Amino acid sequence: MSCGGGGGGDQDRHGLYHLARGDDAATGGYQFSSNDIESFFFSQQPVGIGGGGGSADEIVPYSSITDYLQGFLDPAGLARHLDVPSQDVPTKHQLSVDVRSHDRDSQGTGSAAGEGAALLTPKSSVSFSSSGGEGEGKSHRCKKGPAKEADEEDLQDDEENPKKATNKATKKKAEKRQRLPRVSFLTKSEVDHLEDGYRWRKYGQKAVKNSAYPRSYYRCTTPKCGVKKRVERSYQDPSTVITTYEGQHTHHSPASLRGSAAHLFMSPGLHTLPPPHLMPPGMFHPDLMSMMHMQYPNPGMYLPPPPMATPPAALQQHHFTDYALLQDLFPSTMPNNP
DNA sequence: CGGATTTGACCTGCGC
DNA sequence: GCGCAGGTCAAATCCG
Prior knowledge:
Order of helices and strands: EHHHHEHEHHHEEEEEHHHHH
Number of helices: 13
Oligomer: single chain
Largest sheet: 8 strands, mixed
Strand content: 5-15%
């Protein structure tokens, strides 16, 4: 997926597009509504923009995420998506989309991730790595895991004949390896592992070079779902958690099946929200926004059908400026109605 | 007791 | 070829 070279956007010198509600929201401009949320996170509709796109050889495993991303990259596309005039789409940065191609091992490496985290506005930032695999300078190191399942017979041979195994390893080496699509999220949070609606099993933890914070490796617990995620804390901004998803879920989110808005936003990180009365009218809290990204990191990840044709009932019926709803969702952080 | 987490060992790929 | 770093495995341990 070649996100760079896409259309429009307020791209800074770091190659970051900054799109979000900025001063407009603070001054009572356009307000997010439940419909926006649906569009933002659940829509399967492509948001067309010019440029970008992958070459014929490039693996673009799904179109919806690409379109989804590109919708962010293109203010006009985002405007169409949100059904607002394009000039109303601000270029202030609350949501920053990293459209750079990530070098060595995506942005997940300590240095690269840290750099990205430092460059990006920490709150509510979304970083998408170039996921094509072929186009990347270096292949990923994952040989076990999914590949292991595919090569069970090979492994059996390997046990019987180590020499043969070596040959196979050499042969495999020559093969082009494909990297699964990766999507990274930068989230301000005090907790490392943010609740995202899926169940994960931790299978490893590694110290990251040049970072005081380890990187944790998680795998989706659902059988035959090979989705992995890495969680690490930015060493330059320890308050920022970098979550990188890799692969496609082959099932619905357990949380989405519950359809509970309360569960949707249930995350320890949310307890760090400032008092809601400090939020400007109509302002969609960036942390909350980020949590939603965490909950539905990638609409395209779900294989058919879409996980939720409609948002949870609570989201359909309320605006997020609805104080009563916020009180229901965040009783610990919501004082009585001001 | 079963599932999740921890953690050291191991594998792989890349740079020098 | 060697060392380094990322990524994974799997036994040990923890926990509800």
